[in-house]
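To whoever is on call:

I kicked off a structure prediction for a single chain this morning and the downstream step that reads the tokens threw a length-mismatch warning. I double-checked the sequence; it's 248 residues and nothing unusual in it as far as I can see. Pasting both halves so you can look.
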Amino acid sequence: MNESLLYLYAIGGGEFIPPPAEPLREVFTVCYDGLTAFVAPVPVGEHEVSREAMISHQKVVGALWSMTPVVPVSFGTVLRDRTEVERLLEMNREELEAALKRLIGRIELGLKVFWKKEVFAARFGERDPAVAELIRKAQESGSERSYPVMAKVGELVEAKVQEARSLFEREVHRVLAGSAEDAVLNEILTIRMVLNAAYLVSKEDELLFDQQVNQLLEPRLGEFDVRYTGPWPPYNFARLRLKLQSER
């Protein structure tokens, strides 16, 4: 029989027992002082970082969250045994209870916005007069002298893009953040990405928030591609750094 560790998915309150069906078939609970950890056995040495493993983690957390309030735990959290899980609950009890109280009845909604390719080219590419002029100078200067000019092109485009992002943030994100209970700006992933944000919203206010998103972005759909997703478990609003026994 292979030795196994315990993979931690999420932490909730009370004593909810997950049903023995996919994706929760292997999940069981470890309870301590009113808190419940949702864990599953994982053989030593077999836990891997992969897209499939991350998707599996999200499916389990999502299934739990749809049934009972939970604080999602970061992907890849593995503990030695039940005793270590109980110690983790003991050491982080106050933070976990506060997080559960804050997240009960809340959902996360995600908003990613991108410039359309043709719009980006027109605003920041060769069709932009200032950029076009620098490119012309680089072409006239010859290959050896073109590098400093092309570096200026990059700096100019980056400055223009950042200025446009800041304006969009003021006009759209700050309005939405004012209607949400909390909001976070996540990392910009590509040059054409304008906004990467998440919003914590009461379930009762989801429809109103949807309507506000539509009001702000429908007039801009000729310029932007919009990915509005959710509801999700509140990953972006449960970023606790859980203390372990070794950190005493």
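Update from on-call: the warning came from a stale cache, not from the record. Cleared it. Sanity check on the structure: Helices lie at 51-67, 82-91, 93-103, 117-124, 129-141, 143-179, 206-217.
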